[in-house]
Structure prediction request, 257 residues.
Amino acid sequence: MYSHILKSKRFILILLCCAILIFVGVKIFISKKEWMTQKSGFKRTSIHWPKDCDFTAHIPEERNKYPELICADALDQLRAQLPNDCQYNELALGEDGFMSYHLYADFLGYSPIQFFPLSEGKFLGELLCLSAPYNRYNVYFIYDENSIPAKTKILTFQTFDFEEKNGFVHKESFESQSIIRFFKPESKEFISFIKMRGMGDCGTYFRYGLSETEKPILKEVRVKLECDGLYSYSADDIPLQWTEISVEPSFWNRLLW
Prediction:
């Protein structure tokens, strides 16, 4: 009987020790997480690269006090996440094999990156991905420096490829992170105007908005596959005389026309 009581007490003691260890471990985990991710206190409403987002000489222990270093760290991490179809000239590549913002700027002769304010401490970043003779493709990402480390998220756009076969136009859906030509800050819209040739008389046009959860929303699609010299548009124009395609989800379940 006495032996049974001792075993019961020992079991209770073991359970109590385990509970204490678990509690302490959770506290350490939470404290570590809070230490790793903390509020920055930054309230910037504009960022200009490179002066506001670059590595400069600061004391390592005070890195978190400087928003330009937090931003530089985020951009440095972003390089490995860029889509593969961003083909950077070898003169723009750093020693690590990834694109170097400074070398890329030297190669282009101008800044390849800019920021548009979304809210206090949150921005939309634009990075040149590829510049062709009559098309231009940018990568867009959300940059949030309200916490340390800062957060970045590359935007993904649902889009479509159109092809004419046997008198019918077929579509193929795909996602792209580098289809956008430019961003309109006044309306917070993304424009993709892909010309099939330089005069702009054929190609595809997509217009996207940005939801409250910062996801691209397809708003408008226009297509002209026949390059006949008619209805030419510059990249800054809306090709109103091209065929407008419904953006209703049910429409995409069948052939277009």
